[in-house]
Amino acid sequence: AELGYRVDVDDDVACVDGVPVGIKPDLVYYLLNKPDGVVTTASDPQGRPTALSLVPECPGLHAVGRLDMATEGLLLLTTDGNLTHAVTHPSKGVEKEYLVQVDNSLSSGALRALRDGVELDDGMTAPARVSQPEPGVVRIVIHEGRNRQVRRMFDAVGHRVQRLIRIRIGPIRDNKLAPGDWRKMSSSEVIELSKACGLERYAQRP
After folding, report:
1. β-strands 15-16, 29-34 pairing
2. Domain 15-90+175-202: assigned CATH number
3. pLDDT by residue (tens digit) across 130-157?
4. Phi, psi at residue 108, to the nearest 5°?
5. Do domains 15-90+175-202 and 95-169 have the same CATH topology?
6. Of 72, 69, 6, whose CA–CA distance to 38 is shortest?
7. 68 classed as catalytic
8. pTM
9. Cβ-proximal residues to 204 (8 Å cutoff; 6+ apart), any chain
């Protein structure tokens, strides 16, 4: 670009050495390993701990989607509303992977039902990738974001979820982040997540 070239933030992609960079340097991206018993709402009238209370305060910071209070695992928090919308919108198909501990082993029929889709009170679920690496432990990958979806899917095939942990959001995973701990997302993580949901023009260096 020529010196003094104006960047249209709606149509242009700003790059340095071929790498997309941000227009707004003040956006924040955190990755939190949410523990059991923490809510993802901004505040809680019952005084329960919130995800926002576990990370540094920042105006406009919010959770990307929600995990119910009993669900553990990876949760993104950011001030980037464009990224939040893309990650949570069903049309983008961003995968979320969960590790599920259930009351007993699933039959081949139950696994097949989860893979094909099960009928919930708000409609049929989309096909999921499902495996059972050991008895009573299931890995499931979904790309929808319905309320308590994974728990309801297992209820539909006759199994009670005893523990539910989200271990991946799109390309983002971190098996070394302890429950309750958080870290800033790296530049490459923000760029890869932006690419995964079709927002390369919003990818930037945290």
Report:
1. unpaired
2. 3.30.70.580
3. 999 999 999 999 999 888 999 999 999 9
4. -60, -35
5. yes
6. 69
7. yes
8. 0.84
9. 20, 21, 22, 23, 24, 25, 27, 187, 190, 191
Distances (CA, A) of 168 to 19, 38, 73, 142, 146: 24, 19, 8, 11, 17
Alpha helices in 138-186 (DSSP H): 149-156
Read off the pLDDT of residues 175-199 as tens digits, 9 standing for 90 and up: 999 999 999 999 999 999 999 988 8
Q: Among 63, 78, 74, 75, which residue's Cα sits nearest to residue 28? A: 78
Which residue of the set 8, 68, 116, 122 is catalytic? 68
CATH top-level class for 95-169?
alpha beta
Rounded to an integer, what distance in angstroms lies between the CA atom of residue 29 and that of residue 148?
24
Please report the beta strands in 48-177, taking only residues with DSSP state E, as ranges in sequence order.
62-63, 72-78, 96-102, 119-120, 123-124, 129-134, 137-142, 161-169
Rounded CA-CA distance 55/30 in Å is: 8
Domain boundaries, the chain: 15-90+175-202, 95-169
